[in-house]
Amino acid sequence: MIPSSLFPLVSALLSNVVAQVAKTFVYYYRTGKWDLHWVMASGGFPSSHTSTVTALSLAIGIQEGFDSAIFAVTAIFSFIVMYDACHVRYYSGKNIALTQQLIKDLKSMMGLHLDDPIYQEKLKTILGHKSVEVVGGFGVGLIVPMILLPLFIA
User: Which branch of life, at top level (predicted)?
Assistant: First the structure.
């Protein structure tokens, strides 16, 4: 029997791992190509940030009660993380893509030679998530603690 005090930690960590591994399979399903970099990548379906905080909140709610202060704290934390993943980080990635396209256009249309190393830097454009990716992470975060629950009940 695993100590029940570890239920929230194990739930959150395992939800993260499940979501990260699932990204590789989702990528394969969409493209027909295996790309193991998705196991460590941010962005994509399902959101591992969302699955992690959702599992943590659910496990805390089950363990401490859904009327406890610690559940309230983790629930608010989870909402902030999901909002950030879906809005702030997503649009930051869009801004990076737009800026990179503007630089390419300036170089090709205007013949500009931008020699500063900052213009050569490759930035990651997939930082955040689409809404469906966050919903997928939410689902993983609900399922994993429920599957683990029997291992932690005395």
Answer: Bacteria
Residue at 52 is within a domain: yes
What are 4-47's pLDDT values in tens digits?
899 999 999 999 999 999 999 999 998 998 988 888 877 889 99
Q: How many domains does the chain have?
A: 1
For residue 102, give both structure tokens.
């503007």
Q: How far apart, in whole angstroms, are the C-alpha atoms of residue 23 and residue 51?
A: 12
CB 27 within 8 A of CB 37: no
Task: Judge whether 37 lies within some domain.
Answer: yes
Distance CA 124, CA 55 (A): 27
pLDDT tens digits, 108-132 = 777 767 676 666 666 555 566 788 9
Phi, psi of 42 (to 5 degrees): -95, 160
Per-residue tokens: 32: 């027909």
